[in-house]
Amino acid sequence: MNDAKSDPRVRRVAISPGSVSVLETARHDRPAGWSRLQVLACGVCGTDLHLLHGMKMPAGAAYPVYPGHEVAARILEADPDADLPPGTTVILHPLLPCGACDPCKTGREHQCASGEMLGIHRPGGLSDELIWRSDRLVAVDDLDPLLAALLPDAVATAYHAVKRAALPPGGKLAVIGAGGVGTNVLRISRALDPSSQAVAVVHSDSTARRIAGLGFPIVQGLAGAGRAVRELAGSMDTVIDFSGAAAAPSEALRMLRRGGRLVLGAILDEKVALATTYTGLVTREIEIVGSYASTLSDLRAVAEMAMSGKLPLDGLVSHVIDLDNAPDALDILEQRPPGMVRVVVKP
Fold it and tell me: What is the pLDDT of residue 336?
């Protein structure tokens, strides 16, 4: 890449429904309170694929979009009084909350109705550089940018889901769907409470081998997984589903103990099917909660865990693609070849 100071053109991935391309655009101006960032790595996730498929846009956003919300970068320019100076390697929290609404004031900034998302409302990290508000950056100088790029979504989202799970000390957790986010749920639960027990429900042989290699017991195949998990490890305190499979919530209910909690984390516009009755839910006092995105404090927590070595990130990146070939990254995500965990684009 040419030096950003001498070349005013910036490569960016642009997505419209059914179309993805790499364009050259002018640099954006940097407002006060914002930092100019050289992208070091950017993860590609399901949201980017949904954009390509023409997902309904949130209020304030429109096609074409310039995607990429899992970003590790180096600060090129910042205000003189900024907390993080030029040269600092950072990760970006992908949400810009308003800071004034009730959710923002009560620690639920990720539920801000007028919040903006990196890579949807504003140009994202599938690019040579971008600008982002300085107070939404977290320093990660000790981490490999290829791995650090996954912290803002694949890891922080998993951390938020583990918090929502409210697993008791030494509790039992089942994770349905052990891709990038699900794998991090397993690792985070172990890091936060080594006495806890976690079981993974997986689909493919390659995922089964990978998760077993991390030391977690597995059940392969969703059909009958409720009974299989109980036979393997007993009834679960919590089940977290990131698979989005139609049968997952019903199988999850079969895994849970009385008073157990089901956490749903997949973003889908499908109706939730539960193979039970009102009586089945009420008499067992089953809790069903959603888990969405993360907060800045979640991101800071996982960054600290990763930099301390408490949370290993090895094995999370399976494919690295050059920015000029970014459309290939979306193809890989679409095809989900054996062994795929997370795809990262490196300018």
Answer: 87
Per DSSP, helices labelled H in 24-155 are 46-52, 102-105, 145-148
d(CA 300, CA 93): 9
The two tokens of residue 231 are 């036979």
Contact between residue 194 and residue 181 where contact means Cβ atoms under 8 Å apart? no
Please choose, from the candidates 137, 139, 183, the residue with its C-alpha nearest in 3D space to the C-alpha of residue 161.
183
The Cα 82–Cα 321 span in angstroms is 32
How far apart CA 277 and CA 238 sit, in angstroms, is 19
Q: Tell me the per-residue pLDDT of 327-339, one tens digit each, with 9 for 90 and over.
A: 999 999 999 888 8
Give the largest Cα separation in the chain, rounded: 68
Q: 250 with 275: CB under 8 angstroms?
A: yes
pTM given for the model: 0.93
Map out the domains of the chain with their CATH numbers. 9-150+317-346 (3.90.180.10), 155-290 (3.40.50.720)
pLDDT in tens, 107-162: 999 999 999 999 999 999 999 999 999 999 999 988 999 999 999 999 999 999 99
Task: Give 214-222's long-range contacts (Cβ < 8 A, gap of 24+).
Answer: 214/183, 214/186, 214/187, 214/315, 216/186, 218/178, 222/176, 222/247, 222/248, 222/251
Q: Give residue for tokens 């954006």.
A: 28
Phi and psi at 335, nearest 5°, equal -80, -25
Rounded Cα–Cα distance for residues 236 and 277 (Å): 20
